[in-house]
Amino acid sequence: MLSVKNDLELVSLCCLELSKRRKSKEKISIVDISLWNNALITFFRCFGSGLRKYKLDSSLFKNLDGEPLMIFEFFKNVRDKHLCHPVNMFEEIKIGAIIENQKVIVIGNLNIKRVFEEHEQIRNLHHFTTIALKKVDYDIKQQDTLVRKEANRNISNVVKSNNLKINIQDSLISSKKNRKQ
Q: Domain-by-domain residue ranges, the chain?
């Protein structure tokens, strides 16, 4: 749960920073694009099919006004079909020629790529993130209460437990292993 909370807090910070940056109406920069891409990718880690035991579900947003599930799916499609696997309608290359007197003068290409969302979509993602954070915070408090009760019931076993120490070596080995799918 805490890793999901950490991810959602990062998404929130990315959205807030993007909102500040976009208010200036300057040209979209590589930093803006990176913040947006990171926000979308990180947001959907919280809903993904990865190895995390705690995952959120899109039904969390079903009671919001408007078309929240449609917006959620739009964001998911942008993440899945543009950022992570970009072979689709969000990225297109057209090749053409300039012809003069029945002779090709120049071959050119037009690269069409969706780069960024409007300010309203940044607000939508931030709103979703805020709602998801409230859910995660609630679940963390519930889990904390249960764990604390169980630990107090078996306090002598908790004190003796080897699980209380952190072993950095395990983390280094773990980072080299292949992920189980």
A: 2-154
